[in-house]
Design a protein that fits this description.
Elements: H1 2-20, H2 26-48, H3 57-70, H4 78-101, H5 110-119, H6 123-142, H7 144-151, H8 159-188, H9 207-227, H10 236-260, H11 264-270
Helix pairs in contact: 1-2, 2-6, 3-4, 3-6, 4-8, 4-9, 5-6, 6-10, 7-9, 8-9, 9-10
């Protein structure tokens, strides 16, 4: 209930920032509102000494952004409705997954705890810029496809839309199955040094991240279907996500896994990182 109250207050703060910037273009007004909401969540994280309060923002913000654009006076075409519905499905599933794994204010993500040890007194600056603001900006980049869809002239659905649905929905299902397998493994393992190497995790080392990246590429494909322009601002989102996961998230988690699990080095040497080549 406390998290719901904090996020409700953040939405109110974001709405006030949006109304205050009425002279700006839509994209900048929503960006400022997004940053304002992030600042309010950060304030709660600081007050409660737990940066994990920000974690559900990743899956909640796209639903709010797309839903707000959908509520604008202009009537969205079916393509936008489909993209929004899939985004809502993705966000609700991911938020539910967070609720299943987060144990409350008494626990915090190990990555944040590690950063706190490394940065000492400067940790809250790192938390604001790296844990709160940076992911907010990345998610906003991922949502650029919604602005393209909103501005594009309505056009009939086409084969690219079918490809977008298959990619987005398929990625959501991959991420869901990967998380389910991970939860089952953690509940049944004999000790924490065991390595999950069955199911989707036998195909690649990070199927959950593969599904996440695929989801953002799916949204981008909707914007391509609407404009038939592959090189547009919507492409920035999935490229940014690949950079995040391949350049930051995966190296960070694999470093810890190599330290904690003696058999992980063999698993890492024999299993692809994201693309399951040779593992089908």
């Amino acid at each position: 209930m406390l998290v719901i109250m904090i996020y409700g207050a953040a939405m109110v703060g974001g709405a006030m920032a949006y109304l205050y910037c009425e002279s700006l273009d839509l994209i900048f007004r929503i960006l400022i509102a997004d940053i304002a909401a992030t600042c309010m969540v950060f304030g709660a994280s600081y007050a409660l000494n737990n940066s994990s309060l920000y974690d559900p923002y990743w899956s909640v913000a796209p639903i709010v952004i797309a839903g707000f654009i959908l509520s604008l006076p202009e009537t969205p075409d079916p393509r936008f409705m489909i993209a929004f519905s899939l985004t809502a499905l993705w966000g609700i599933r991911l938020t539910r997954n967070w609720l299943k794994t987060w144990e409350g204010l008494g626990t915090e993500d190990w990555r944040y705890q590690s950063l706190a040890v490394q940065t000492g007194r400067g940790y809250w600056w790192v938390s604001f810029l790296g844990i709160h603001l940076f992911p907010t900006l990345l998610v906003f980049l991922g949502c650029l496809s919604f602005f393209t869809l909103n501005e594009a002239n309505p056009s009939p659905l086409n084969l690219l839309d079918l490809l977008a649905v298959i990619t987005t929905l398929g990625s959501i299902l991959i991420e869901h199955r990967a998380d389910a397998e991970l939860h089952k493994f953690r509940a049944s393992r004999c000790d924490r040094s065991q390595v999950l190497d069955t199911g989707l995790w036998a195909r690649c080392r990070h199927p959950n991240y593969l599904g996440e990246i695929g989801f953002w590429f799916g949204l981008y494909l909707f914007s391509v279907a609407a404009t038939f322009e592959p090189f547009q601002i919507g492409l920035i989102g999935p490229v940014a996500m690949v950079t995040l996961f391949v350049g930051i998230s995966i190296p960070m988690i694999e470093k810890k896994l190599l330290e904690d699990k003696p058999n992980y080095s063999h698993y890492r040497a024999t299993t692809p990182m994201l693309i399951p080549y040779g593992k089908l």
